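User: Show me a protein chain along with its predicted structure.
Assistant: Here is one chain, sequence first, then structure tokens.
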Amino acid sequence: MNYLHLMAVVIAQAQKASSGWQVLVMYILLITGMCFLLVVPQRKRQKEQQKMLNGLKAGDRVVTSSGIIGTITNVKGSKFILKIADDTKVEIFKPYIQAKLDKSEKSE
């Protein structure tokens, strides 16, 4: 709520400014600040996801983006082989792995 109030104050002051270039500078600063607040957290999440994907190996339990839980049995370049049942294995591309499960987490 404080951020929205700050934006309103900045816009109001920019509109009260006597010259057009001051208004332009205020809008540029406002847009730059908003972009910074949106882009930086997204890049951080992408780096964490990539680090998790690079650290996966055979034997790790994972969840796919579609909600399938399985154990990695093999790594083939940009794909994983997941064992999802006793005699059922599927190939899945690395970007579709959403999270790594802890050893203590068991599926029901």
